[in-house]
Amino acid sequence: MNDGLYFLAAKCSATRNNxxxxxxxxxxxxxxxYAVKAGHSFEPGTGTSRGKAIETRGGISLGEDCNCPWCDxxxxxxxxxxxxxxxxxYDGCGNHxxxxxxxxSEVGGSIESVNTSAE
Length: 119
Ligand SMILES: [Zn+2]
Ligand SMILES: [Zn+2]
Description:
By secondary structure, the chain is an all-beta fold. It has one domain (6-115). The chain contains no helices and 10 strands. The chain has strands spanning 6-11, 18-26, 29-37, 53-55, 60-62, 75-79, 86-90, 96-97, 104-105, 113-115. A 6-stranded mixed β-sheet has the order 5-3-2-1-7-6, with no helix packed on it. The protein has a two-stranded antiparallel ribbon with strand order 4-10. A two-stranded antiparallel ribbon has the order 8-9. The relative contact order is 0.28. The model is unreliable at 43-49 (pLDDT under 50). Bound molecules: zinc ion (2 copies). The site of one zinc ion has 7 residues, from loops.
């Protein structure tokens, strides 16, 4: 099992600032171990993601203290409208407005695979 470092590029839905989710594989389960502010940009299409796709069947759990580092939201969504490449924080109520493309969509389902970015 590859236990390397995996980061997920994410954007705060409230402030549109960037952050990274650190992903750790513990016993076959993916856990977000922490979230950290990121200064540089992860705009879709810029090709900053040079990681690889990982299977997350069974979902991704959130560790403790993994709130959005900018607005303190407690959950995250994977943005399908942007090709399933980017995470955004989600405050848990109502529809989610994508901080990347501005599209509003319903939140649902589970995250089955993600593209990590190597940092
Ligand atoms: Zn946020
Ligand atoms: Zn989007």
